[in-house]
Write a structure and sequence with these properties.
The protein has a domain of about 70 residues: 434 Repressor (Amino-terminal Domain) (Orthogonal Bundle), CATH 1.10.260. Helices cover about 35% and strands about 5% of the residues. The chain has four helices and two strands; from the N terminus they run E-H-H-H-H-E. Strands 1-2 form a two-stranded antiparallel ribbon. Helix 2 packs across helix 3 and helix 2 crosses helix 4.
Length: about 110
């Protein structure tokens, strides 16, 4: 899965914000919420491994944009997912049967 994080590009091209302090001031002005400079620097300088929905909402509200303006997710093309076959070893204990049914019990 390809994830493209373009917050720094959006800030510089559309909002003329070139620093974390500038983004912090914009967020405080628009939402009244204060995000630490450390967290803002992390969001600007590299793709986050974890993004809270609340944080994404704050950024989108402050910048008057959609999440897709700075985050793009593309699935891999041509990659087939093969279903995993269950075997006795990876079957949960609660679903294992302790005995094998007798075929004679199922006569019609």
């Amino acid at each position: 899965m390809a994830i493209h994080w373009r917050l720094k590009t959006l800030l510089s091209t559309k909002h003329a914000i070139f620093s974390a302090v500038g983004l912090q001031k914009k967020i405080i002005k628009e939402t009244g919420i204060r995000i630490s400079l450390q967290n803002i620097c992390k969001l600007i300088n590299r793709k986050p491994t974890l993004l809270r929905l609340e944080t994404a909402e704050i950024i989108c509200t402050a910048l008057h944009c959609q999440l897709s303006a700075f985050l793009e997710i593309k699935g891999k093309t041509g990659h087939k997912i093969t279903p995993c076959k269950l075997s006795y070893k990876n079957t949960p204990l609660g679903k294992r049967t302790s005995h094998v049914p007798n075929p004679k019990d199922y006569t019609s």
